[in-house]
Amino acid sequence: xxxxxxxxxxxxxxxxxxxxxxxxxxxxxxxxxxxxxxxxxxxxxxxxxxxxxxxxxxxxxxxxxxxxxxxxxxxxxxxxxxxxxxxxxxxxxxxxxxxxxxxxxxxxxxxxxxxxxxxxxxxxxxxxxxxxxxxxxxxxxxxxxxxxxxxxxxxxxxxxxxxxxxxxxxxxxxxxxxxxxxxxxxxxxxxxxxxxxxxxxxxxxxxxxxxxxxxxxxxxxxxxxxxxxxxxxxxxxxxxxxxxxxxxxxxxxxxxxxxxxxxxxxxxxxxxxxxxxxxxxxxxxxxxxxxxxxxxxxxxxxxxxxxxxxxxxxxxxxxxxxxxxxxxxxxxxxxxxxxxxxxxxxxxxxxxxxxxxxxxxxxxxxxxxxxxxxxxxxxxxx
Length: 382
Fold this sequence. Notes:
The chain is an alpha/beta fold. The protein has eleven helices and 14 strands. The strands form three sheets. Strands 4-3-5-6-7-13 form a six-stranded parallel sheet, sandwiched between helices.
């Protein structure tokens, strides 16, 4: 950027809104269809975080100022807000993306990926933010009001979907893509699930600790049950069996997080309970990185160090904060971007051809081994 702006960080106007207004002015200097700097280059030039600039550029894409082309870059599309506003329908129809209304890198990634997918396919992306009091009847009503609805992508809070709510959405008459392993899929007419391979996630998490000699491991269930259909625990148990170890090698917290509950606080309380009952535990596996933060607080209060006293593994986030935790966290990461892309591709093909895809499609995870796991010596667990 030619001019270095002076953003007012204590202003009543949010920082991202100041950045958006500045970029709209700066883009007037470009020619239509000219390639723009990358989000990272803009962030560096403006001395703002990548997430702030990325949020602004996604808004500008939704509003029609810019067009993002996968593998090519971002291009100036208009000097005015004219495309993909609330009053304009995408040329090829609409897609609804419904997700919980609270801060989450995973949910933000899913929405961001869906928005880019829709822009590339000439679709309008309609975002529905789910609150604790949002009923599935309300979601269905909003969906019915959309013109040329091509698909609905839903990431619910685990444990929040009732059988009645599932059937109501399944009856909308368009492909419904669930980003969780619903127990109601078997009888569905218009629903499929595109999910992480949770069995593989559990297996990789457990195998890492077992390979490093840990034999007293506890799974901290700090998130609400239901997202994985119990596959994560089955994967962990399979890893124990493959190492010819007794089932008692793995213990599972008796309590779990609850829908809409602070998962870091859940993990904090569950971790304290684990070590109140048994100080001999050498490895903990958390449902989420938020859970690890709560667990770290509990371990600090107990005077335990990671990884000297306790090793930690968690389900993580690709390109997230996992690598910058104290110490860098070993994680097994789903691929929410690929889940969304694959889900919408299957939905659009289903809508166009009438051929229903497989009921469940699983996306492979990736394991990142870092410094939060140490190797146990034989005497450590006597």
